[in-house]
Amino acid sequence: MKNTLYIIIGSLLFALAVTQLAMPNSIAEGGIVGASLLIYYSTGISPGITTPIIFVALLGVGIRYLPKPMVIKTVFNVALFSFFLWFFEHIWAYPIEDALLAAIFAGVITGIGFGFIYQAGSSVGGTSIIARMLNHQLGWDLTGVTFALDAMVVVAGIFIIGPISTMYTLITLYVGKIVTDFVLGGFDSKKAINIISPKTEEISQRITTELASSATLFYGTGEYSKEERRVLYIIVHTHRLLKLKRVVKETDPDAFIVVHNVKDVSGGFIS
């Protein structure tokens, strides 16, 4: 039930972004939706019609390379998305004077929609079907092939909607990816920190008492000095990173600190 609700919300948001922001301002997309939009700009045929046709054609070729649960969810998602496209097309949307704003907000709404769709284990990309088929037959990289196919759709837009609108499309895709990652990663982002210092015991104690957090201790050997050193590994909320670095520098001004972005964190003890 939860996944179904996510698919409905995601499809609704994506359709709104396409019909109310992308289409009135001649902005395209990647994947089969991008191909459908280019067909619309060329012939006037509704994306609500071409999107399921293209998807069914791809699915007929590559269905055996996809997991059955994913096929079921994606078929439902594409059907729902196509309906929303057809429905919202009849709500007249006017072009925005500043096309850059249209591109940015189309990316924001699309990114939120994709976040919900991906959370449900579904997609509307279409190009992933071809990527999986080529991966199975020729061993090609899934991510690289998907990116190349989406890029081909975007590049084709230069000859249909022109270079300016294609550049706005790239902005939409970039913003959409950032927002999708943000939705999937959660609103409460975290950082992973490695600290190398001879004063790791003092640093660990201050982290426990002042930040109410915890640390994991590793032992590493310097390649140049051949000396064994203690390495602390810590996960903290992003807004507490500056305080953590201040605690470390106060304890050991020469401490070596490496900060990593982490995609997802679950379990353990994180204040």
Automatic annotation (TrEMBL):
Organism lineage string: Bacteria, Bacillati, Bacillota, Bacilli, Bacillales
Q: Which organism is it from?
A: Halobacillus kuroshimensis
Q: Which residues cross the membrane?
A: 38-63, 75-93, 99-118
- Please identify the protein, giving its name as recorded: YitT family protein
- Keywords on this record? Cell membrane, Membrane, Transmembrane, Transmembrane helix
- Localization (cell): Cell membrane
Which part of the chain is the DUF2179 domain? 214-267
What Gene3D superfamilies does this protein's entry cite? 3.30.70.120
Task: Describe its membrane topology.
Answer: Multi-pass membrane protein
Short name of any one Pfam family annotated for the protein: YitT_membrane
